[in-house]
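job 3f2a | input accepted
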Amino acid sequence: MSAFVLQNCASEPKPLTTVGGWKQGVMVTSPEDSTTKAFLWFYEWHMFDAVNPELHTRGYESRADWSEQRQSFSETGAEGMVAFDHARLDVSSTSNGADLTLTIKNTSDHDWPELASIIPCLNPGPLQVEAIRSEVKEFPWDEKWPTKSVDATEGLLMRESEDGRWTMGIAWEQFLSSQGHNPWRCMHMGVKVGPLRRGETRQVRGKLYLIEGTKEDCYALYKKDFLPEH
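job 3f2a | predicted structure (230 res):
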């Protein structure tokens, strides 16, 4: 794989990733190595009465449900979107991954509570990345969940290759849960979308990181993007 150096260079701007459609979601490809990809499945789960009035339900149960999904990506691979009847994910390529904007509307027949969330899945695809590490801004936790709504902000989950060379991550400005699924190498960062009354719409900013660098490099980028005061 070619080197992808994390540095600032005004005369030689870093190349951008390429974003495109992939099954039920988005594929992001490194500008330096076409075999280095991240796959964002949008999305897998509802939690705490988001969309469905239950604790934990599948995002879409059947292929027929997924057929309602709409995808559109530019020919240049610079931007695109994935959408359903109640949710839309806009994606824009960057030099270190992709910017994400989730727009979700409560089209159900019930108000969504404070803890309502949806859970996309980020997967490293063919890369052999087995070690999982997570970095979060020292929030108080009660097992898996934040204990107060004010704790459910600025969350990052990362996966680093065993040799420390490649790192990918997923971050949201409002999150509820953080879970790594080692057998499938998945990263599940739950996006907090509640409270949301019937008919209301909310936007949540996110970021997909795909870099040649360590988890510390990725965390530094995350702090710049989401925690500029630190």
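job 3f2a | Residues 1-9, 127-143 have pLDDT under 50 and may be disordered.
job 3f2a | closed
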